[in-house]
Specification:
Number of strands: 3
Distance between the termini: 6 Å
Strand content: 5-15%
Mean pLDDT: 90
Length: about 100
């Protein structure tokens, strides 16, 4: 199943955090994600995905420039999103995200 990746830059991914969100959930929030970034989901995925805060904004329907509505850090975003009803993809040994 195809996965939209989470880009962990400048932050170490905790083992309990997902590596991405299943493609069908990203597709469901496609409009907001593409509006925030001006790129298609495919293009964003090819470039490594979105940071946790960017993904938070897309999934929550928040504009990226509404900083007051976003968690302060990527770590805060991941902690808050953990209980959301999203079909997360977790790391599996030696399998690619496209498997």
């Amino acid at each position: 199943m195809k996965v939209f990746p989470i880009l962990y830059q400048g932050i170490k991914r905790k083992p309990e955090w997902p590596v991405g969100v299943k493609w069908h959930d990203a597709q469901y929030h496609k409009f907001g994600i593409e509006q925030n970034h001006g790129q298609s989901l495919d293009a964003l995925a090819e470039r490594g995905g979105l940071s946790p805060r960017e993904l938070f904004a897309g999934l929550a329907g928040i504009k990226l420039n509404d900083l007051a509505a976003l968690p302060a850090t990527d770590a805060d975003a991941m902690e808050e999103m953990q209980n959301w009803p999203v079909d997360w993809e977790y790391a599996r040994s030696s399998q690619s995200l496209d498997a």
